[in-house]
């Protein structure tokens, strides 16, 4: 599998005229080698020449963590007293055009640029992004498991099993995190809990605010499963009788979200899917309050290609996996969002999240 992915990377490097691809920390490296580098200051770098064998340069003390795959790369461990930048520059040789992974530390890129003065540089995502965006059957299955695990937590929330009233947002966030781990995640990536007016801030940082009766609680949570694939979903619940207008806003979102999912067919463009959600919300009079794109790709990272946003004409193909998450935010009052992970398939869009979309009234 890794050798086959690397073949496709080399093919794309050829198309783009990239001589050498350099990948450091971030998800491109595990996608191509199965090895995830710790975000250390010590340099880890996969050097992939378009026409030659790949070399994985790692600090000596990290080498025991590498599962060697001779058909994919040669391992080159560097000692504490060696200069890994010279090592990588040497492997890059006389390359004219280099692509470097988007997550690479700026410090490393600057040092490499000082060494390879004649080269021109491109973002590694131009090479690897479109390949990672199209999931194979095993990856879709991984995303399905991740979404099912997140759904378990959403169902507990909707059933009133997660105490809300009288607790702080931060306490509920920690609780959701524990439940994400209990449902099978290896890591919690985020658990946004935003109550009442705080829900009008899409990425609200859960804090010391105590949740009261009769207010919306927006919960947006996700984590990484042991195999590296991510979940991400949003549901809103209300602690007792909802405030005026919340039901109406939420119903608009339910329609907009469902229509955008239905529009996410193979061949539709990313911006068309965004436009469908936006049109429903604008027609209901809330267009100015939908202040972000409709969705983002998901896989080994929470946010990756493709982005469902105005200006992205890219067409959906089978295997594209992405969130569909319209929201409406009324400053100083409340906000709401509904988010599912969806995969484009030849048989139509498949929602991986199954927890109900409705505004659950919880006695919790
Ligand atoms: Zn977000
Ligand atoms: Zn989310
Ligand atoms: Zn999301």
- Beta strand %: 15-25%
Note the run of SSEs as H and E.
HEHEEEHEHEHHHEEEHHEEEEEEEE
CATH C-level class of the largest domain is Alpha Beta
Oligomer: single chain
- Which architecture of the largest domain does the CATH hierarchy give at level 2? Alpha-Beta Complex
What is the CATH T-level topology of the largest domain?
Creatine Amidinohydrolase
Question: Alpha-carbon distance between the termini?
Answer: 47 Å
**Ligands bound here?**
zinc ion
Low-confidence stretches: none
What is the compact description of this entry?
It contains 9 helices and 17 strands.
How are the SSEs ordered, and which strands pair?
Blueprint: H1 2-16, E1 20-23, H2 28-33, E2 45-49, E3 54-59, E4 73-78, H3 84-92, E5 97-100, H4 106-115, E6 120-123, H5 125-133, H6 137-158, H7 169-182, E7 187-195, E8 216-224, E9 233-238, H8 246-263, H9 270-283, E10 295-297, E11 304-308, E12 321-324, E13 327-330, E14 334-337, E15 340-345, E16 348-351, E17 360-361
Parallel strand pairs: 1-5, 3-4, 5-6, 9-17
Antiparallel strand pairs: 1-2, 2-3, 7-8, 8-9, 10-11, 12-15, 13-14, 15-16
Task: Report on the architecture of this protein.
By secondary structure, the protein is of the alpha/beta class. It folds into two domains: 2-132, 3-Layer(aba) Sandwich (Creatine Amidinohydrolase, Chain A, domain 1), CATH 3.40.350; 134-361, Creatinase/methionine aminopeptidase superfamily (Creatine Amidinohydrolase, Alpha-Beta Complex). The protein contains nine helices and 17 strands. The strands form five sheets. The protein has a six-stranded mixed sheet. It has a four-stranded mixed sheet with strand order 7-8-9-17, with helices on one face. Helix 3 (84-92) packs across helix 4 (106-115). It is elongated. The mean pLDDT is 96. Bound molecules: zinc ion (3 copies).
